[in-house]
Amino acid sequence: MSEEKTILCKTCGSELLGDYCHSCGEKRLKPEDKSARKWLADLFSNIWMLDGKLFNTAKAMMLAPGRFARDYIEGIRKPYVKPLNLFLMANLVYFLTSGFDTFKTELDVQIKGMPYSTLIDGVIENKYGSSEDKTQVYLDFEQRYNTKTGEVSKLIIIVLAPLLGILFYALFRKKGLYLSDGFNLALQFWTYFTVVVLLILPQIFRLLRSLFGPDVLNTGFSSEFWLTPLILILSGLYTYFQFSWLEKRKIALLARVAVVIVAFLPLVFIYRFILFWMTYWML
Ligand SMILES: [Zn+2]
């Protein structure tokens, strides 16, 4: 019989039966694993694998959101980048580029266009003077505020992610969805949202403006007039496909998508209210 003494996994102490630990997945290191050539080969194979996974994930996210969501929930996870990593990657790109500031709300809008505007107008007036007079002190503050709020707003999308997850769970838990599934699907949704609405859409707008002049999308309305319904349609469609495999009754599915869209609006107000105070305190 074998004279070999049992080899234990260096990481978790389980008895090793092959090169990989059945318990924690650690690989047993051999001297040749430490060669520089192996190190380089590993590096390239990691990049290659990430590349393949990323491509696969991006393709599924854009072309088959239903299959993407279903696969992840039913346990086909290896072919895809983890939702949290995917979300963080998309956000990193968003932080580093000057994409859309859909989530940025300038001081003017906070003071005039929100349900809670009277409150904020009072706070600002006390400290920086009336938003009607626009003294130099006020204008200086406004400029600083608008720059700062752009930075803060990019961070807040991270707060919105779990809120949507809880909403998904509440709507589909009777269909067997777990809260963690809700979070994963919300992360997939926000990744799509970040890529399509915050990164690609502004480029399309920019292209249209450069082709047809700066006023092409205004036609008498502000550009927000186009933006809000467009964003709601893009979001609603995506949610519809994400859950079409789980809820087969079309009417029931549409009703739930409508709830998501309707919930979006107060969420936007709450979000903007928090955004104001965060910006205000950070100035
Ligand atoms: Zn182990």
Tell me what the structure shows.
The protein has 283 residues and is mostly helical. It has one domain (83-282). It is built from 9 helices and no strands. The structure holds zinc ion. The site of zinc ion has 8 residues, from loops. Zinc ion binds at residues 9, 11-12, 14, 21, 23-24, 26.
Radius of gyration: 25 Å
Query: How do the SSEs run, as a string of H and E?
Result: HHHHHHHHH
Please give the number of β-strands. Answer: 0
Mean of residue pLDDT values? 85
Secondary-structure map with pairings?
Layout: H1 36-63, H2 65-74, H3 83-96, H4 107-112, H5 117-128, H6 136-172, H7 179-212, H8 224-243, H9 250-282
Bound molecules: zinc ion.
Give me a quick take on this structure.
By secondary structure, this protein is mainly alpha-helical.
Task: Tag the structure with descriptive keywords.
283 residues, 9 helices, mainly alpha, binds zinc ion
